[in-house]
Design a protein that fits this description.
The protein is an alpha+beta fold and about 200 residues long.
Length: about 200
């Protein structure tokens, strides 16, 4: 789980709250045991792969299913453990630029067999989203690996305090989510990225 806010230009890429997210078939932020994350590889100067409209791991009705589940959770409120109890939050809407940023990150993790909020070439969430042209005031990101379905990954995120807090954050208004199949030999079969934002 990574969250960024940009209330003023001087805080362009300031990390307001960061919890190491190794949500790989478990919870994140150190709350639950996870399979060991692969060691990130470094490829300085590498650019993100060209993104499509969004990868879906061949799951049917992906966009509608993801939005329905996110907004169902937001409408219900949630107890996110150490990160607080959240009341109901307004629904989020799909954003193609956030999806593009998420797509590039999941494709990169799958192609280079790593699992991290920081890209193999050192780019951050803010860098990846800025590259799409999305003008934001706040950002958040949840990543996961190994989950086979939308419900499974959403259950994992909601059970993890930091990821749950991102999902329930009333400050976010837009979302993009992708699931990219792992390559042969990858540590994980799937690589998920959810990017949340509020435009300026």
């Amino acid at each position: 789980m990574t969250s960024l806010s940009r209330p003023v230009a001087a805080r362009d890429c300031a990390v307001v709250a960061a919890v190491c997210a190794l949500l790989a078939a478990c919870g994140g932020g150190g709350d639950a045991a996870a399979p060991a994350a692969p060691t990130p590889s470094a490829t300085p100067g590498a650019s993100a792969p060209a993104a499509s409209a969004g990868s879906t791991c061949n799951l049917p009705n992906f966009r509608a299913g993801v939005l329905a589940r996110i907004n169902q959770l937001r409408a219900s409120g949630a107890d996110c453990g150490v990160d607080g109890v959240f009341g109901a939050a307004a629904p989020v809407v799909w954003n193609d630029k956030l999806t593009l940023a998420a797509e590039g990150h999941s494709q990169d993790m799958a192609a280079k067999n790593y699992f991290s909020h920081t890209s193999a070439d050192g780019r951050t969430l803010g860098d990846r989203v800025n590259a799409t042209g999305y003008s934001w005031s706040s950002l958040g990101e949840n990543i996961a690996a190994g989950y086979p379905t939308i419900n499974a990954v959403m259950d994992g995120w909601i059970a993890s305090p930091g990821h749950c807090a991102n999902l329930m954050n009333a400050g976010f208004a837009e979302v993009g989510v992708v699931c990219v199949p792992g390559a042969p030999g990858d540590t994980y079969a799937t690589y998920w990225t959810m990017d949340l934002g509020r435009p300026r």
